[in-house]
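re the bet — no i am not wrong, look at it urself. input seq straight from the record:
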Amino acid sequence: MTSTLWFLLLPILAVSFIVNKADAFENQRLFNNAVIRVQVLHQLAAKMITDFEESLYPDDRRALSKIFPLSHCISDSIEAPTGKDETQKSSVLRLLRTSSRLIESWEYPSQTFSTVYTITEKLTDLKVGVNVLIRGYLDGQPSMDDNDSLPLPFEDFYLSLDDGNLSKSYRLLACFRKDMHRVETFLRMANCRRSPEANCTL
């Protein structure tokens, strides 16, 4: 390569480097924002269930702690990594798409306790952020949206908080806490997996 050609290519390479670095910085910022948002939701979920448990009589609390493990959540029907090994081996795109579906599964049921905690708005913000990250990874690839739709509605599964039925209210809160913990785990792992040399362990 002649010196003249090198001289002409240097500005192009410099611009390309700056653009790539800016893209990487923006991508990292979006990941950080998503992780922070889901942390807030996870903390809110933990507070909600703690407040609920503290409002119960000890006998009711003990009874509910035995009932819930036998129940299931709507998210159990969503295909997702299970266990540490599978989560650590999952692709960034799979972790992001699973997170989006888990968030989406709560858009309707969150309205039952959103008047106090403004959960629905926070979930919407988080979903938008995660979907931006997904679009970045799907750029130039076929869309898989048609294969990822969730069964709706959720009314028949989740019931609103109801003082008259403690087990149903407890299940709603416990499922929400569990799913926000899963989304937080998946987003943290996806962020780590973007760096091939990183040691991403749970």
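see?? The two ends are 48 Å apart (CA to CA). told u. also The domain at 3-139+151-193 is CATH 1.20.1250.10 (Growth Hormone; Chain: A;). so pay up
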